[in-house]
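User: structure tokens for this one?
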Amino acid sequence: MSNQHKIGWIGLGRMGEPMSKRILNNKCDLSVWNRTKEKAKPLTDAGAKLVDNKADLATCDIVFTMVSTTGDLKEVLFADDGLLSKSAKPKMVVDCSSISQEGSGEVRAELEKRGVAYLCAPVSGNGKVAKAGKLSIVSSGPRASYEIARPYLAMLGRGETWVGEGELARVWKIAHNTMFGVIIQSLCEITVLAEKAGIPRHVFLKSINDSVLGSMYTTYKTPTMTNLTFDKVTFTPKLLLKDMDLGMSAAKAQGVPMPAAAATRESIANLVGRGYENVDFSILLVEIAKSAGLELTPDNVEMNDGLES
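Assistant:
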């Protein structure tokens, strides 16, 4: 049976809430903790148990974590009030966050020292993708741990892959999000080029989506870029800058030149420096247009992002 384990979940943000909801919808025994208890209400209303302390999840078999940084992960696991602050301990921690390879290795060493298995399982997608069940999950760590966690990972999206031992999934995620940044940079640049030449933005983007260059990514960014609805946040410039920095650090460590990624990193840093915070990172389109002397206005065209669940 795929739901034979008691599952714990820490982190109910933009990604964690819809991901944990999919675990619950598969009739699993789910307990959750979140810093802001109100965010757990949709889950508790659906049958999840809300615990007061992270350590209360230590009696679960598998605890999933979805947090923002390496520091956040270490805190929820090892702080005085963390998951492992008492004598009880879960059999496994599965972390779905986007953190550095080095930080993940430090977490692995500490967990293994305490007799807790550790699986890296970063995901590809945003909150809406998670809700639609279309995430891709890539894991690394002991193969035996992956096989135990695999049924639950399968509940989160459309595919799960084991890429090897240790922190290799972190390398995959860093490479993935670096490409993520480079694509949005290129897509914004060519969209501005086409619009300034006279092609309506929605027409150009639809044609790209229908071409060999189109993808799920370009399709679900098209409504935001067409109608300039950057308040519908999927990923912020600050978070993307963090991932671009991880990519550049990994490239330096491996001796890999990445000129396109380096240029994109500076472009995203410019967005952050201009004070763009609680907006979608694709607002990069507006800044590139300004540099080209083009003032954008919404097309106000109804478009499908391809993520209806």
